[in-house]
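Morning F.,

Quick status update on the modeling queue. The single chain you submitted on Monday has been processed. Sequence for confirmation:
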Amino acid sequence: MRIVSLLPSATEIISALGLDDQLVGVTHECDYPASVQRLPRVTRTLIPTDASSGTIDELVRERLQSTGALYTLDLPALTRLAPDLMVTQALCEVCAVAEEEVQAAACMLPGRPRVVNLEPTTLAEVFDAIRQVAQAAGVTAEGEQVVARLAARVAAVTARVAARLRTPRVALLEWLDPPFCGGHWNPELVRLAGGVEVLGREGERSRQVAWDEVRAAAPDVVVVSCCGYGVERTLQDLPLIPPGLRAPVSVVNGSHYFSRPGPRLVDSLEILAHILHPDLQPLLPGLPAPLAYSRLAAG
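Structure tokens below.
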């Protein structure tokens, strides 16, 4: 089978299922595992990635109100690759090629490839998405094995943090200009890690918040995981956090973790549990240490 992935999390799912040798094309954002970086790219962004966070937010809003297009497909490249299976999503219009464009492209491609559309909003639905891809690729048993291993790691985290003496209030922010709280699976990860999310709601979309709302929520911990940004890029935006928000701030890679609904959401859970309860959840080998800033915004 020849598989094309149209979002980074799908690429990671396909790899986790042991289908690397069947993956023939990926998006311009796919960077994990490292082996996929040699594959042909079948998408490009219409938003300048070197713009400021505020400008990116403005451009995204403008495009969603007009054309709705943030990414576009390279149809000639897709035609050359002749995929049997294309994996995409319709969950977030900001994160991938529009579903309508994918379906239209599939109709024009030789052999009419099957399109699998993933829309997980919770951790359980992410596990179901892994099963969905596995079934479409004919590796159902491998999908169950991957899910079982991930579920065991989740259970190990919840067992460790069950011994906690406190449940910290957490504000997980996935953008800083303007500020957005985390949504979908991220409030669930906070709960599983032994915290309580004070802004986002499990299974619901992320939403723009005011800094006054963040302060009023009185978080004990602020976790900054800017969607699509690595740690270095996120650091450029930390001065946007206003004076008065005195909770310790931990910065994590929002490109690789928390924003990708795939296997590494469990890595995200393990990182988050380490932030909230380092005495109970050690930083496991291979996971990046979060950058901690105590009283970063103290005035």
